[in-house]
Amino acid sequence: MAEWANVNCWYANHLMNRIGPIDWGASVSRPSSLSAPFLMATGVLTGDGRAERPVAPPHSHPEPMLAWCYRGTVWVYLEDSIWRLAPGEGIWLPANTPHTARHERDSVGCYTNVPDSAFEEPVLEVRRVRVQRAVQEMLLHLGVNDMDPELRVRIQGVLLDMLQEPVADEPTQAGEIPLPGDERVRPLVEAVLAAPGDVRTARDLFAQHGLHERTVLRVFVSDIGMSFGQWRTGVRMTMAARLLVAGTPVGAVGSKCGYHSTSAFSAAFKERFGVTPTQYVARAKSEGAHRAYWR
After folding, report:
1. Are the beta carbons of 123 and 75 closer than 8 angstroms?
2. What are 82's strand-pairing partners?
3. Could you give the 3-state DSSP secondary structure of residue 188?
């Protein structure tokens, strides 16, 4: 079964389907932005108040890419999943992976391309990475300052070593929201992502979208390894965790997430994360890494 353990701190702050359907079939391969002997190239994009739009049409790069968030919230869209990145969080994308992204208002997202030959182990699947504050600042520094080429390459090598360090499990991690690929359930998925707190029953939602319960169960289990109910709860808990860390009262969070009482929400939250909402907030705020990346 697909795991939801890594989505505790991400939620759909804006309507996730506002960017509209993504035409993955129209994805284009962009030329490399790298030039020898350098080991990386970083592009920086900022939110411009149009949070409902992707920053670029779907595309891919001939080399692996690190997508990471410097400020605010960055959403990275892949064909089969959506990743929400908070400051200091990133994901490695293998070469030739179609993707696009959306930045929430006043957010800063960065995209660092690295040649396959620079890695100790090849990037063969999407994986999360902690982008330490020192690494963030140096990547940005390299992007806007001239220096001796040999010095630049040495610094880039050190940064790559730091970026390839194992990521320890933490209560605040980059998270993936798995998405079923079957087009029949896409309107249903978009409706839940747009309004995780909708109190209508699953059957009511299925009926609205002209779907049979068995069809939905079969699609979700086949595509992402969990039932619709499990997936919907995961989306709600993702939203809940982010709201809690942002300072929203527990009762208000429960209401926004579709729970009729604070006790019911707290029980569901503890079942998901193993701690109460209050304990979760305390742990998140006590994490040194978490404090370092709050902006």
Report:
1. no
2. 77, 177
3. helix
